[in-house]
Specification:
With about 425 residues, the chain is α/β, with parallel strands linked by helices. The protein has 16 helices and 14 strands. Bound molecules: guanosine-5'-triphosphate and 2-acetamido-2-deoxy-beta-D-glucopyranose (NAG). 2-acetamido-2-deoxy-beta-D-glucopyranose binds next to loops.
């Protein structure tokens, strides 16, 4: 993302300083420890455990990261079916820090997955662990852990020029100078970092696992590798296992009861405690409200023809409320308050009820922006009818949730239209598969 002006002396100097610092940093010092030197590092490391790490381009948001998780969870699940060949596979979950859209609080928070998701449920699909469990398992008598092999995935520069779309990978020159510290931990590093030009599916990374004897491998820029099973049964199993943290679910359910007259029994969205017992049905009714996810901020600039202006958004919402014979809209949005207040004012003027979840300061500290986003998503997922924003991964995750809950497709795959005509193609329908 950062572009250096090569002619600037100052930048050159900075680069030299940075390189020098990094070279010094790579030198093996006392206290560095290699995970495979078992005697030195750890008494508890089980001998055939292999840790797979992945990370994602820092510029990617929360909801795309959830999608990248699925690629690696499925990958790890399939590898873990081959214990004979690969040993005991564990996928180490990348903690959440410095997310692009989230407020920068000046320090990496390293939020564990359990804050947002139900870890047990994730583990009932794939052999995933939190990074603190990895630290625990590799523990004592050393200060730094080296990941034995790091592959920074990158696109082939010529991919779109040559149109050679056959699958391929090769270790080569790095397009971007890679980091030597991982997940913002000072004590997690590697002296074996390679760039892997890659075009293909996550499953093809199995070749690396196969040919390597490393006990810890990190795939950085993991989003470069694509889904193998997009939209298929395995994809949906993985997606269904991504149950949310129960505190967030309880909070959202309370909110539904209190402000939206919505509960699972009346809404007919009761799902079993364990995702593995879910079955296909499309009988969900949802609560007596329309839910709208209105993505604004960067989308207003990036997709001007797809995102309506505020008055237009309000008018589209009114038309839908009228059609549905509903009087309440739940509005989920990243818009600043001035904007969402304007929309609400248009609607209230016409006697519609506008409900928004506005987290208190305590909510934000407790649930963080990710938790707050999930609460909004849960509430949207339980509405009688949902309208999302074109090509927003935030909206996609809500649509998936509604597929899991069993809503008829036509009540889920709808979007706000931009432009004057208010006519736009409907979103792609990704139906759940069992
Ligand atoms: N609470 C809340 N947060 C939102 C909403 N819409 C967007 N956000 C925030 O804005 C961020 C950006 O959206 P994401 O969908 O995660 O980012 P992304 O992966 O780049 O996806 P796009 O929406 O496709 O940009 C989210 O992570 C949320 O923190 C919303 O309706 N409610
Ligand atoms: C590395 O640092 C983190 C936090 O700073 C700590 O939780 C973890 O235990 C450390 N790991 C090791 C192996 O010392």
């Amino acid at each position: 993302m950062v572009k250096f002006k090569r002619n600037s002396q100052f930048v050159k100097l900075i680069i030299i300083v940075l390189i020098t610092v990094q070279v010094i940093d790579c030198v093996d010092r006392d206290g560095f420890c290699n995970i495979d030197k078992k005697e030195e590092c750890s008494e508890n490391l089980e001998s055939d455990t292999r840790y797979i790490f992945y990370d994602v381009n820092p510029a990617e948001g929360f909801n795309l990261r959830r999608d990248v998780y699925m690629r690696y969870a499925i990958f790890a699940k399939l590898l873990s079916d081959k214990t004979e060949e690969y040993g005991d596979i564990r996928l180490v979950l990348p903690p959440w820090s410095f997310l692009y859209h989230w407020q920068d609080i000046g320090k990496p928070e390293q939020i564990p997955w359990g804050s947002f998701f139900d870890l047990k449920s994730l583990q009932s699909f794939a052999p995933v662990i939190e990074i603190h469990q990895f630290f625990q398992e590799t523990k004592v008598r050393f200060k730094k852990v080296k990941i034995e092999e790091v592959y920074v995935l990158q696109h082939f520069p010529d991919m779109f020029e040559t149109n050679k779309f056959e699958d391929k990978m090769s270790v080569g020159e790095c397009n971007v100078r890679p980091d030597t510290k991982f997940f913002h931990y000072k004590n997690l590093t590697s002296d074996n970092i390679q760039c892997l030009s890659f075009h293909g599916f996550t499953s093809q990374l199995e070749i690396i696992i196969e040919e390597s004897s490393a006990r810890s491998i990190l795939f950085d820029r993991g989003e470069v590798a694509l889904h193998d099973y997009f939209g298929q049964k395995l994809y949906w199993e993985c997606r269904r296992s991504m149950r949310f943290n129960s505190e967030l679910v309880n909070f959202a359910n309370k909110f539904r009861r209190k402000f939206l007259n919505s509960n699972n029994i009346d809404d007919n969205v009761n799902i079993p405690d364990d995702w593995r017992y879910e079955t296909l049905h499309r009988k969900a009714l949802g609560g007596p409200y329309l839910a709208v996810h209105l993505r604004r901020k960067d989308f207003v600039r990036a997709r001007p023809t797809e995102v309506p202006n505020l008055q237009d958004a309000a008018e589209q919402i009114m038309i839908e409320l009228e059609k549905l014979q509903l009087s309440t809209v739940f509005l989920a949005t990243d818009a600043p308050n001035e904007e969402s207040n304007k929309i609400a004012a248009y609607l209230r003027e016409k006697n519609y009820r506008v409900v928004k979840y506005e987290p208190t300061h305590e909510d934000l500290i407790k649930y963080k922006e990710g938790g707050v986003a999930i609460i909004d998503q849960i509430i949207c997922a339980h509405a009688q009818y949902f309208i999302g924003t074109y090509e927003s991964t935030f909206s996609f995750r809500i649509q998936e949730q509604r597929e899991i809950l069993g809503f008829p497709c036509e009540k889920t795959f709808n979007r706000m239209c931009g432009g004057k005509t208010r006519q736009c193609s409907p979103p792609t329908v990704w139906k759940i598969v069992y």
